[in-house]
UniProtKB/TrEMBL annotation:
Name of the molecule in the record: C-type lectin domain-containing protein
Domain named C-type lectin: residues: 22-132
Organism: Oryzias latipes
Family annotation (Pfam families): Lectin_C
SUPFAM superfamilies reported for this sequence: C-type lectin-like
Amino acid sequence: MPHAPQWYVPFSWRPLRWPYDWREAQRYCREKYTDLATFDSLDDLNRLKADFSYSWAWFGLHDDPAAWKTSMGNKSNSWRWSATGQTSTTGYQSWARDSPDFYQGKETCAALGGGGLWNDAICINSYRFLCLNGKTFFYGYF
């Protein structure tokens, strides 16, 4: 399988062509790299936007129903990063309009959609995905 060019940037993601569900993508990223991608700021996302075509890709954010409070419901602060198990340390979010909405009680994983906005999605859907590669970041297409 030929490799396309790789672009080096101060942050790293590897968008992979093979579609996996969220758990398979997480397992693959943890075995081959560090984890699914994490975004701490708009700058992170803007670096990715330059060379990445958004057609639904998993990244490392998932909803943790155990963090819900009855009075709070499904709010963005119940979402955790795969790499740390914690909410955002910077408070950065980039949700699409009306997301997260926990549609039909099944959307507990996050994917990048059009324009790089975050969308909650059903975790068993198969999408490409973005892996975090330690602290020396690069991303490319395989």
